[in-house]
């Protein structure tokens, strides 16, 4: 989608109602961002939209790209947002051999995740391990601003273990961040075409297409 240079439309300030809707969608899709939401989307700052080819909208604030969306699909984080809050997004890891393919925009295939250098989630009940309740998570009540109070968001008790394995299986259609063996920062973002449990069982086939990756047109786009 972003293999070539991307040309965007002039930035357009969004209505307050649309800004609130996007804020809530971000919290719903990425609840681990809830403790940081006022840093991601500062109150009294305007969220702006840049229209891109292929019916993609990029949302930016104060010159910082946050999330993008094709048509009415899921909101996907820009890699610059992922690099700011790396533990707030579900992750998988590719092996060294898959890096050059992913960073050229190729389809991510299952063997790049199931090999020795790859990494897939290892489910664990973190609440039980911590002696917490079965319901899990804690609720972020939000803060009341000039335009009302946002809905409470339950922050799930999930995340990476000491080795970086995510603590639950990820489902088909779920957005995921792709880490790379031997690298500290995320390499790509996309939507899973196959759940991680199925990836482990089958071990072959396409896992992710149309990714946003380091160095692509979206990464290089000037949003100032």
Automatic annotation (TrEMBL):
Its main location: cytoplasm. Residues 90-215 form the PUA domain. InterPro entries: MCT-1/Tma20, Pre-PUA, PUA, PUA-like_sf, Uncharacterised_CHP00451. This is Translation machinery-associated protein 20. The keyword Ribosomal protein does not apply. Keywords: Cytoplasm. One of its GO terms (molecular function) is RNA binding. Residues 125-172 are annotated as: Disordered.
């Amino acid at each position: 989608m972003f293999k070539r240079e991307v040309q965007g439309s002039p930035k357009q300030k969004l209505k307050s109602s649309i800004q609130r809707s996007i804020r809530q969608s971000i919290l719903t899709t990425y609840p681990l961002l809830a403790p940081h939401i006022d840093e991601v989307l500062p109150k009294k700052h305007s969220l702006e939209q840049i229209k891109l080819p292929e019916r993609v909208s990029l949302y930016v604030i104060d010159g910082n790209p946050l999330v993008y969306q094709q048509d009415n699909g899921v909101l996907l984080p820009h890699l610059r947002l992922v690099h700011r809050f790396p533990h707030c997004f579900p992750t998988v890891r590719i092996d060294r051999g898959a890096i050059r393919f992913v960073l050229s925009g190729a389809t991510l295939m299952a063997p790049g995740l199931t090999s020795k250098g790859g990494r897939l989630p290892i489910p664990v009940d973190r609440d039980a391990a911590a002696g917490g309740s079965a319901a899990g998570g804690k609720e972020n009540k939000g803060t009341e601003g000039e335009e009302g109070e946002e809905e409470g968001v339950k922050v799930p008790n999930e995340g990476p273990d000491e080795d970086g394995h995510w603590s639950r299986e990820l489902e088909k259609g779920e957005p995921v961040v792709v880490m790379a063996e031997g690298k500290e920062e995320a390499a790509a973002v996309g939507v899973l075409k196959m759940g991680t449990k199925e990836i482990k069982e089958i071990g072959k086939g396409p896992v992710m297409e149309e990714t946003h990756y380091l160095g692509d047109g979206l990464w290089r786009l000037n949003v100032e």
